[in-house]
Amino acid sequence: MNQETIYFQWGRIQQNSDWLLPILAFLLVCFLVTRIYRYDSKELSSFWRWCLPMLRILALLVLLIIYLQPQWYAEREVQQNSQVVLMVDTSLSMGLPNSEPVMETFLAGKQDAETLTLSRKKAVMEILQNSPLVQNLRQKHDVILAGFDSEINKIVTLQKLAANNKTDKPGTIQENSASTESSSKEVTENADPKEKNAHEGTPEENSPSSGENPLDWDTALEAQGTETRLADAVRNWIQANRVMPLAGMVLFTDGVQNAGGNIDSAIQIAQDARIPVYSVGFGSTQPMENIRIYDVESPVRVQPNDPFTITALVQGYGLTPVSSQNNGASSSKIVPVKVHLFSRPSTGNTQKSSEDNTETQIATQEVLLSDDGKVVPVRFEVTPKELGKFTYTLRAEARPKEVLKDDNERETDIEVMDRKTKVLILAGGPTREYQFLVPTLYRDKTMEIDIFLQSAQPGISQEAEQILDDFPSTREEMFAYDCIIAVDPNWKDLTNPQIDLLDHWISQQGGGIILIAGAVYMGETVGGWIEDPNMAKIRAIYPVEFVRRFSSVRQTSFTARDPWPLDFTREGMEANFLKLEDSLSESHRAWMEFPGFYGYFPTKGPKPGASVLAWFSDPSKREGENLPVLISSQFFGAGRALYLGTGELWRLRTKNPDYFVRIYTQLIRYVSQGRMLQQSNRGRLMIARDRYTLGDSIEIRAQLTDSQLNPLNIPETFLDALLPDGRLQRVSLSRDPERSGLYTGTLTVLTEGIVRLELPLEGTGERLSRRVEIALPDLERENPQQNHLLLEHLASTTGGLAFQDSDEAIKKLPAIIPDKTRTITLSATINPKYQRDLLKWLMISAVFLLCMEWFLRRLLKLA
To answer: How many CB atoms lie under 10 A from the CB of residue 373?
Structure first.
């Protein structure tokens, strides 16, 4: 259907009554012109008495035509295809086992029985790629494929098949230019914007298919979303495409909605738009029996013959109970599970599998798990005898019906070395934080503490290995330390060579520094260094930008009237070095119950590349758009700098005295990794943290030297990454232009498990290695079973159907989704340039007629 009709209309005339005013005005003016000329041309011949007024009237007639806006339009009836949207859940839970066979009818005889039970994502791919569903839908509809998790990702549009093209191979995208007589190309660039938008929709919706190239289903439907916003996906798609002939939405999902708006809001939008929502469910509707080692807590480094504890946090879901314990009206199911601890030497070689190393079983413990996911700690005490690096594996025995067994074990690397962490506490004065910190660290057997108290008098006595009279000034003195804790120091007391040495120790030697803010030497009580131009190198170490004050009004108070809790960022909530308890949930609860801090230091915000872990939550202390930064960290070359915007961590002792000890021990281990994990004098391999969420980018940094121990100077180097699925991936590390010998790169992993990073050092046979744990977010783990009740509610209330049997969905969906193909009329201006030229010549004609009239009046000597 492509009939075009051309018609003429006056732009000013929308209805017959619109003629009245311009015609009356024209006749009135014509009457006045003839009356005037009757008196002016009495002495002229009859020719001139008629000629002169006619020139004026003709000019007025031309102006009337211009006012009425003559226009030529073309109308065209076009067919707009019905649309069906196939929305595939691409959240991480879709990577879990489907537990039920898919497409038994369509795959019968084509594949063995084991391939019928797939991951949920693979099951969706089988339906879309190998079943006739998509092709059958294309008989009546344009089929749009989109993915959704935390947001919607439109993948491709498959146009309706032409009557003579019904046998395309499933899973192949083909552009069918003859499939419909309507096309966005039929709308000219001059079409009415509203009508053009109604026909075209968004630019993405009418993007052409990609020729004969098959779609890479595995990449397009990669399950990597960290949360599922099912209601938001339905609501947002309908709101953005209400003008289109949308016949229905088909959701391929497990129905696990763990973020976003309420499903009722999506139902209301679908009901108002009269768009039915269908669903094809994946995953078992019953709770999956699963044991999971959620996390492992262990020290990074220990000393020989010094006992240490490895703590495994174990969870159970849907477990078949062997006994019940009743507590009033509630009943909790309890299941005994054995957890084993194994040890093996860490080879750090990505070319070998872990099976190449013989494991030694160290201990076994039995833990009682409930079926509701409650975290239960299992602690193993180990006494190392030999020096070296060892991998400890904690493995929970799998249940008979357990499908997902990959999370039954976790590993942790521990280095046994006869060396303590050497810490220098640098303090401007004996603050309360300093007074609690010194004895706490002095009692830690894994640390050796020196102090430099700048305000101290000679001969003082402190709990420390050594009391310094000055900041280290030689490389030998400086390089002996692994970590510096700077408690509001007076940096102005350091000489330029000492500042340069500090900069080199952090950036080149991987030193770690904890920077604790204070009101004395930072807050201008005694002339702060914040605005001192000579302190530029010191300010560069801090991961925050400070408020620079040049007016005479100075802020001397850095406290709030009431305590304010920490406002943690997502990265801060996931940081193991900020945990107060073994599990993250218990740690979050402890931080929430902690009243907070009074003291803070004003900041403008974090520096580029720095990570904010917590803000000071008092809204009245906001500087510009940001709250004051309370905890922040950054890489500084090969080392780490961590900023504490308050010197009141000692207040944690009021909640639990162990919290103060624990958090400082963790902070020291965190910032000193660059020093303590150095595996060669040729370099060190660093990562921001040892645990990442699936889909996060791992930031990798390497500080390298050549054979002469000078900073390495080549454009790039390469690192090998052994992924959890056994694949070996090569990662490029590029030279940092601002730091000699520093190389950086990123790696994104989409498989849960352990990633081993290995950087070979050319010409030495040595390999720098690190181990990274990739974990599935808790949101996608907590309730992995199919939420059929939610899908049934969504479908039934919008006029759709909820399918659990994929065979039934493949057969029925093409028949029950109505065809909403419609014909719309598009109008467009024909040759607007011609119409503009017409108006121009009409205006020239009016001017010519008026000029001729004036010329003749002058010639005939009329006034």
So the answer is: 18
Angle at Cα 438 formed by Cα 432 and Cα 441, nearest 5°? Answer: 130
Mean pLDDT of 825-843: 79
- What residue type is 858 in one-letter code? R
Of 209, 164, 276, the C-alpha closest to 797 is 276
| Tokens encoding 48 | 């001139």
Q: Closest Cα partner for 362 from 386, 339, 387, 389?
A: 339
Q: Are 614 and 642 in contact (CB under 8 A)?
A: no
Q: Is the pLDDT of residue 626 over 70?
A: yes
Coil, strand or helix: which one is 643? strand
Q: Are 748 and 696 in contact (CB under 8 A)?
A: yes
Burial class (CB in 10 A: 0-12, 13-18, 19+), 327: exposed
Beta pairing partners, 10: 70
Check if the beta carbon of residue 809 is closer than 8 Å to that of residue 800: no
3-state secondary structure 613-633: EEEECCHHHCECCECCEEEEE
Residues 181 and 578: their CA atoms lie apart, in Å, by 63
Instruction: Sheet with 4-10: list strands edge to edge.
Output: 4-10, 70-80, 822-829
Interatomic CA distance for residues 630 and 643, integer angstroms: 7
Phi, psi of 467 (to 5 degrees): -110, 120
Quick one: pLDDT band at residue 858, thresholds 50, 70, 90? confident
For 125-163, give one letter per residue: b (16+ CB within 10 A) or e: bbbbbbbebbbbbbebbbbbbbbbbeebbbbbbbbbbee
Report the distance separating Cα 565 and Cα 573, nearest Å: 14
Please tell me the distance from the alpha carbon of residue 109 to that of residue 102, in angstroms, as a whole number.
Answer: 14
Residues in contact with 91: Cβ distance below 8 Å, sequence separation at least 6, in sequence order: 149, 150, 223, 225, 226, 227, 228, 256, 780
DSSP 160-221: PPPTT---PPTTB----TTS-S--GGGS-TTB-HHHHHHHH-SGGGGPPP-TTPBP-HHHHT
pLDDT in tens, 296-349: 888 877 888 888 889 888 888 777 765 444 444 444 578 899 999 999 988 655
Which DSSP letter does residue 655 get?
T
User: What is the rounded distance in angstroms from the CA atom of residue 418 to the CA atom of residue 522?
Assistant: 38
Which residues, 6 or more positions from 798, have their beta carbon under 8 angstroms from its beta carbon? 267, 270, 271, 275, 276, 277
**In the block, residue with structure tokens 């314990």:** 325
pLDDT value, residue 238: 92
Has residue 787 got a pLDDT over 70? yes
Please state the length of the chain. 863
Helical H segments across 11-45, by residue range: 20-40
pTM: 0.59
Please report, for residues 54, 852, 862, the alpha-carbon distance to residue 48 in angstroms, rounded to integers and kept in the order given: 10, 13, 11
Compute the average pLDDT of residues 63-69: 89
Are 793 and 263 in contact by the 8 Å Cβ rule? The answer is yes
Among 479-483, 574-578, 630-634, name the one with the lowest average pLDDT: 574-578
Whole-number Å distance between alpha carbons of 646 and 634: 17
Single-letter code of the amino acid located at 840? K
| CA-based nearest residue to 613, from 663, 539, 662, 678 | 663
Q: How far apart are CA 240 and CA 242, in angstroms?
A: 6
Q: Give the whole-angstrom CA distance, residue 231 versus residue 152.
A: 11
Does 575 have pLDDT greater than 50? yes
SS3 323: strand
Q: What is the DSSP letter of 403?
A: -
CB atoms within 10 A of CB 390: 20
Q: Is 605 left (phi over 0), alpha (psi -120 to 50) or beta?
A: left
Lookup: tokens for 549 = 């004050």
What mean pLDDT do residues 416-439 have?
92
**What is the average pLDDT score of the chain?**
81
Question: What is the DSSP track for 134-149?
Answer: HHHHTTTEEEEEEEES
pLDDT category at 212 given cuts 50, 70, 90 is: very low
Question: What pLDDT, on a 0 to 100 scale, did the predictor assign at position 325?
Answer: 43
